[in-house]
Structure formats: structure tokens, C-alpha cells
Amino acid sequence: MLYTQATIITVNGDRDIIEDGAILVQGDQIAAIGKTKELTSLHPHETVTELEGRIIIPGLINTHMHTAQTLLRGTADDLELVSWLCERIWPLQGNFTTEDGYTAARLSITEMLKSGTTTFLESMFADRYGFDGLCQAVEESGIRGCLGKIVMDVGTYASDPKWAMHPGLVEDREMSLVGAVKMHEKWDGKADGRIRVWFGARTPGGVSEGLYKEMTAISRKHIPITMHCAEAPADRKFFASHNHTPTSYCEAVNLLGPQTVLVHMVHLDNSDIAKLAETGTHVVHCPSSDTKLASGICRVPELLAAGVNVTLGTDGAPCNNTCDMLQEQRLAGILHKVSTMNPTSVPAETVMELATINGARALGLAGSIGSLEVGKKADFVVLDMRAPHLQPWHNPVSAVVYTATGRDVELVLVDGKEVVRAGKLLTMDEEAVWKEAARRSKEVVARAGLTKQVGAEWPVK
């Protein structure tokens, strides 16, 4: 397959942008990339898709996602994190069935693919949601998924008994850690290598130090870790109560290192930033979630300046409320300009790196995804720029970061296969997915006894 006449943002080592560019796909890889005239003359018999007026970017990599929570979109708006968890999200998730988990995964993946995400990192999938169903949804959809199975043995937030999890969500070592290892044995490398199984550890205070150390010992051999950390003021108080900063605590339980992806990382000291850089630990920036929950603003400019690999994630739908990485890019590019009062802070080019090659590095996949280069996987996204709200544009990177949204995605390839064409998902029935999700969401809310609480504040007549 030959895709021609597009503007191609490669994010390769030289950060080349190719005008009137073409990409040749053979099997699951990029076989050639260059000017349209050159590639069409060299490959005259290939099936051609003409893409004049479009921009091609590497597939977006969402490094923090809660696939189960998309079923709960709009159920916990305008709350801070602990209330959001204890009053809404945990009671709702504690009433999930495995069928609900599978439906939620299909809805999440549908939205991600249609808005340009080709790879995602699931942060913390609970046993009751049905991990097999999550893997099946990844397999049938064509997306690439690094799937974190929850690891925990403490059923509170920040070890505070006032902030208890719903009993239906509490897991012990056998169910969580041992269960994750079993899922790794069963699913890692499946779906033509598109599935990778990770540890999805709960926030400090939700895992005993002994279980952390047992998990990290396994991780250093073959299973990476993702974990929320230093997200909200309550987390900072937890660390202080143990005479630690966020990274000194993580270091004490052997969490730091290139096998670990830490999420949010809002409440950091300068020493924390230095330690992250020293150890090669990756950080996920979630600007929509952190602002909507009023958790704070991650110190992204300082992290980048220190050499920390910073990536981008949408977080879950109840705290975003979308899974659209293009919208997440825009906020990541704007937020730090006002927080630092410096309009050059975190420019568009840096934001695109967060959403592509930096994400690939964090997942250990930079050799195969994250940029458009010969020999890498054919994971890319085509944006149709032929619309009033996208014209005119001059710098294609800033046009993508500051102007485009997921609704502008026309074509998506993962592993060399078209999974979205003309804006329509090819691998699953979109209408069936969202209708089933809408039905099951209402059922979950009703089972949790929260129908009135999640409804409209204004009178409904």
C-alpha cells in the first residue's frame, strides 16, 4: 500500500517534515518514506491512496488510560480527587461485572482509534472487570495495548481508613500480583505482539512495602510497572508522614528505574526531579485530569530541562472527559505557558514528542513505534486538514497540536492494517459498541444507587 501526496511529520532523529510525501507499507512495516514522485516511480504497481491536503503523523501513544472508566463518563464531574474516588468512582466500579469491563474496553478503544491513538498503556485494570475481556478487545480491535493488571493489598487511599475502597474492588496478593503474573504468562506477546502485560500498581498507601518489593523484584526480570504517584495533596501528606518525598519513598521500595512509568507526579521537590532524571524513570503528564480534579500542575518544563522522559496521557473519561490525545496535546501546550508566564514553554514540537516518541521510549518500544521511519511498524494517523476550522496553516506541527481534534482523523493504521478509514472504525461495529455501553452504564449507576447523584443539577422536565 502506498500513501501519497501528504505532509508527513516523521518525528525521526532529524525531525524531518516531508511535503508532498509518501509512505510505502509492506506487511506490518514502513518499507519506504520520501517524496511522492520518487516512491510512485519506484513502486508503480502498489495500491495508492492519495492524501492531498492531509497531514500524516506517527500514531499517538496514550501512556495513561483507565479503559474501564469510559463506561462512567460524566458520572463524577466537578469533584476533587478523593471525593471523586470515594463518593462516585469506587462505588460504581465496585458494581462492575466482567461484561461491563469488556464493554468499557471496547468503547475506550473505539474512541482512541477514531481519535488517532494507536498504542495505549492501561494503568490499573481490576480483576473484577475481567482481564481476559480487555485482552480480547485489544485483539479484535487492532490497537496496540500495554495492559496494567492491578497490584494492591491495602483497600484505602493514602492509608487513610476514612477513604476506603468499595469492598468489591479490594484485592489481595494472590488475586493481584499472582494474578498479574498469570495474565502475563497467558497474554503477553499475543495478538501478533500487540499485547504487552504490565504491573499496574496502586498509589503508595494502597500497596504494602513488602508487596511493592516483591513486585519490583519480578519487574526487573521481565514485567514493567506503571503507577500513580504524587497526584494530589493527600499523596504528599502520605509521603511526609513516612518522612519521605515521593521519589525517596519509591526508591526505598525499588520502584525507580527505566522499567517504571510514574503517572501525574504533580507534587514534587527539586530533589525528586533530580532523582527521576538520575534513575531514568519515566513520567506521564495528564493535564486535563490534573486540572479538572484541581490536583495541581505537573512541573513539566523543569522535568524536561532535567532530562526526564515525559510522556502524555488522557487518564480516565470521568476526569477528562474524553480519550482524545489530540485535545490533550493542545492543553499540554497551553497550560505551561500560563503557569510559567512564558509563551515559549513547552512548544508544539515538544508536545508532539511527548505524545509520540517519548511515549514509545517509556513503553520500551522506541525501536518499533513513535516515529515514521523505514523498518518501524506502520502505525500512523492521517488528519484531513481540508476544513474551515483547520485553515489556513503554515507550521504543520502547530496546526496539529493547537488546532486539530480527534474528529479530524480520517485514516489510522496499526501494524500496517487500516483500522479506521474515512473516519469510520473498520474492526468493530461502532454503533453496537456505544449503544451497549450506554445501556450498561445506566445499569451500573443504578446498581450503585447513584442515579440521582450523577444526574443533572438543573431541573429536568
TrEMBL record:
<dbReference type="GO" id="GO:0019239">
    <property type="term" value="F:deaminase activity"/>
</dbReference>
<dbReference type="GO" id="GO:0046872">
    <property type="term" value="F:metal ion binding"/>
</dbReference>
<dbReference type="InterPro" id="IPR032466">
    <property type="entry name" value="Metal_Hydrolase"/>
</dbReference>
<feature type="domain" description="Amidohydrolase-related">
    <location>
        <begin position="55"/>
        <end position="419"/>
    </location>
</feature>
<dbReference type="Pfam" id="PF01979">
    <property type="entry name" value="Amidohydro_1"/>
</dbReference>
<protein>
    <recommendedName>
        <fullName>Amidohydrolase-related domain-containing protein</fullName>
    </recommendedName>
</protein>
<dbReference type="InterPro" id="IPR050287">
    <property type="entry name" value="MTA/SAH_deaminase"/>
</dbReference>
<dbReference type="GO" id="GO:0016814">
    <property type="term" value="F:hydrolase activity, acting on carbon-nitrogen (but not peptide) bonds, in cyclic amidines"/>
</dbReference>
<keyword id="KW-0862">Zinc</keyword>
<dbReference type="InterPro" id="IPR011059">
    <property type="entry name" value="Metal-dep_hydrolase_composite"/>
</dbReference>
<keyword id="KW-0378">Hydrolase</keyword>
<dbReference type="InterPro" id="IPR006680">
    <property type="entry name" value="Amidohydro-rel"/>
</dbReference>
<keyword id="KW-0479">Metal-binding</keyword>
